[in-house]
Amino acid sequence: MNFGFNLSEKVKTDGIVNGTDSQDLVGYKTLNLFPFLAAEYKITDKIFVDARYNFNFFDMHKNGFETKIGFLQAGLGYDLIQHTEKLKRFLFYLEYLLKGS
Fold this sequence. Notes:
Layout lengths: L1 E4 L4 E8 L2 E5 L6 E4 L1 E7 L4 E8 L16 E8 L5 H15 L3
Antiparallel strand pairs: 1-4, 2-3, 5-6, 6-7
């Protein structure tokens, strides 16, 4: 589940609408929830690609004006931590050092 936060209710347009090129949108929710469906493919041990489609089943507008957004995300990634056992040992050692040996 992804969470989306509406930081601003201003919209800027390319043309003039009602005498101005920016409008305040009123009545939109501050928090939006986006369930998603995702897939990942490892090209090598450390390089992968992923894709995710975010659905919006919940209405974004507070007053019943139907506004729903769905979007596709794609990414290319590099796995920095390939071996979990090495990470566990490192974190155990780091915790030991931080506690003051």
